[in-house]
Amino acid sequence: MLEVDDPAGWYRTLLAARATGELSCEEIVPAAETVLLAGITKLPELAKMGPLPGPESAAEVNIPVRWDGADLESVAERWQGDPPTVLRGLTLTVAFCGFTPGFAYLTGLEERYQLPRLDSPRPNVPAGSVAVAGPYAGIYPRSSPGGWQLLGHTEVTMFDPLRAEPALLTPGTRVRFTDA
């Protein structure tokens, strides 16, 4: 487990090192403040490495959203603006995945748009719900409990175990919200 300032950058560095054979491991898993290396058989000298910047040509996924979330009005008041307009104007980036299979933590919200989680989580957030909490935006891939501010929903399947790549959004992917 590496504790780092730029997990996404280190994730890219470690993927590149694995591709060149400098690193041999089974998995590289970024998180909010760490990168986990599992099944290491060969490790480069990390002190001589650093985080790589994001690629200009990262995959981009457009997610159509129906802006009908339970918290849309209260978020609009707190943001002093229209959440759909704000989110449509951003390109967010998947920093890491977790919580449940296919749940991607999207970074790129300006500090003024960062909101706390709800005081008490909802027992059931519908699959496809588009939400924000703290510095992240996210899309619930399946129905689950959750404490994020709900802004809308999408019909796009975030996680399908039958796909070659089950998670639609993976670290480094750029995401843009559009109107459904």
Automatic annotation (TrEMBL):
Pfam families per the UniProt record, alphabetical: CT_C_D
InterPro entries the record matches: CT_C_D (IPR003833), Cyclophilin-like_dom_sf (IPR029000), PxpB (IPR010016)
Name of this chain's protein: Allophanate hydrolase
Classification lineage: Bacteria, Bacillati, Actinomycetota, Actinomycetes, Micromonosporales
Domain of life (superkingdom): Bacteria
Domain Carboxyltransferase, residue spans: 1-169
GO terms, molecular function: ATP binding; hydrolase activity
Bilayer-spanning residue ranges: none
Keywords carried by this UniProt record: ATP-binding, Hydrolase, Nucleotide-binding
